């Protein structure tokens, strides 16, 4: 399939998805959202992609937000709401993807780009990364989940501070706030992401899927319900061949070879 705005590269057990509009700092237009949707179909259908990296092309940006040229032409509140829903659905799908998603941000991750980064499972940043919700400077608000995911992650007050001021968050500060899991030298960003993807691609796929589900679903509910969910998912994973393989491998003092069954 030919895509205009993204590239999907398959490797042994994992894939690298690059948003590729460097002239506009990888801004997300509608076509890019559609292509990302198709790429996720491809990842899910492939059956042998066990970890996904998402990054932006060029030296300056991860993704500098929704495409402001396109936003400028939106004629009505109704259409704006539909666009927000479209992006939100895509980002929620990413969050719930059965395989772990590593976001690798090596530059500006602003507005929709920050919201995209917040929809992954693990966020790696280079020292040059800058995160932020500058929508307020355009007279609008974040629409791809930023007010919700950032507030859940760092608390309401810190989320309000950044969404109201539009101030950028440098990589180290994002790390301190728990937004970013690791900050690495710029040239180490992709090697680090790839090494992590390789590690994850060797873990038990069904267990990883249910770890994601337990944490995602549990974060949206009370502790009692979350613990019920965890116990139920724990039971489900015991139906897999991989749990036998994992335990046998431990007892036989060898490396497990997981098949995703
Ligand atoms: C369209 C964009 C863009 C964007 C950058 N460009 N960001 N085009 N949409 N979000 C374009 C610029 O117009 C410029 O094109 C080229 O990319 C390079 O950008 P510069 O501004 O020249 O680079 P620089 O001076 O280094 O500044 C980098 C920057 C700045 C600080 C990241 O580009 C910037 O503030 N961008 C906008 C960030 C933003 O407001 N994002 C939130 C968008 S709203 P030319 O043709 O001049 O070379 C959003 C809402 C999501 O995301 C929810 C929707 C429902």
Automatic annotation (TrEMBL):
<dbReference type="GO" id="GO:0016836">
    <property type="term" value="F:hydro-lyase activity"/>
</dbReference>
<dbReference type="InterPro" id="IPR001753">
    <property type="entry name" value="Enoyl-CoA_hydra/iso"/>
</dbReference>
<keyword id="KW-0456">Lyase</keyword>
<comment type="similarity">
    <text>Belongs to the enoyl-CoA hydratase/isomerase family.</text>
</comment>
<dbReference type="GO" id="GO:0006635">
    <property type="term" value="P:fatty acid beta-oxidation"/>
</dbReference>
<dbReference type="InterPro" id="IPR014748">
    <property type="entry name" value="Enoyl-CoA_hydra_C"/>
</dbReference>
<dbReference type="InterPro" id="IPR029045">
    <property type="entry name" value="ClpP/crotonase-like_dom_sf"/>
</dbReference>
<protein>
    <submittedName>
        <fullName>Short chain enoyl-CoA hydratase</fullName>
    </submittedName>
</protein>
<dbReference type="Pfam" id="PF00378">
    <property type="entry name" value="ECH_1"/>
</dbReference>
């Amino acid at each position: 399939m030919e895509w205009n705005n993204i590239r999907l590269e398959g490797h042994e057990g994992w894939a690298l998805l690059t948003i590729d509009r460097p002239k506009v700092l990888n801004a997300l237009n509608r076509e890019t959202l559609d292509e990302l949707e198709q790429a996720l179909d491809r990842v899910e259908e492939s059956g042998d992609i066990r970890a996904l990296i998402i990054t932006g092309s060029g030296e300056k940006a991860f993704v500098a937000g929704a495409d402001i040229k396109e936003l400028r032409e939106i004629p009505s509140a109704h259409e704006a709401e539909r666009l927000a829903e479209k992006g939100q659905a895509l980002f929620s799908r990413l969050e719930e993807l059965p395989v772990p998603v590593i976001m690798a941000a090596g530059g500006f991750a602003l507005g929709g780009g920050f919201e995209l980064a917040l929809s992954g499972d693990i966020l790696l940043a280079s020292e040059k990364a800058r995160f932020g919700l500058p929508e307020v400077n355009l007279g609008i608000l974040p629409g791809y989940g930023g007010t919700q995911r950032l507030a859940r992650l760092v608390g309401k007050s810190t989320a309000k501070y950044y969404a109201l001021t539009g101030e950028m968050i440098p990589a180290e500060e994002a790390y301190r706030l728990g937004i970013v899991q690791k900050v690495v030298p710029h040239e180490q960003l992709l090697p680090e992401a790839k090494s992590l993807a390789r590690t994850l691609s060797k873990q038990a796929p069904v267990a990883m899927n249910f770890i994601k589900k337990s944490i995602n679903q549990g974060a949206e509910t009370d502790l009692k319900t979350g613990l019920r969910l965890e116990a139920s998912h724990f039971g489900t994973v015991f139906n897999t061949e991989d749990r036998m393989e994992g335990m046998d491998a431990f007892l036989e003092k060898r490396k497990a070879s997981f098949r995703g069954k």
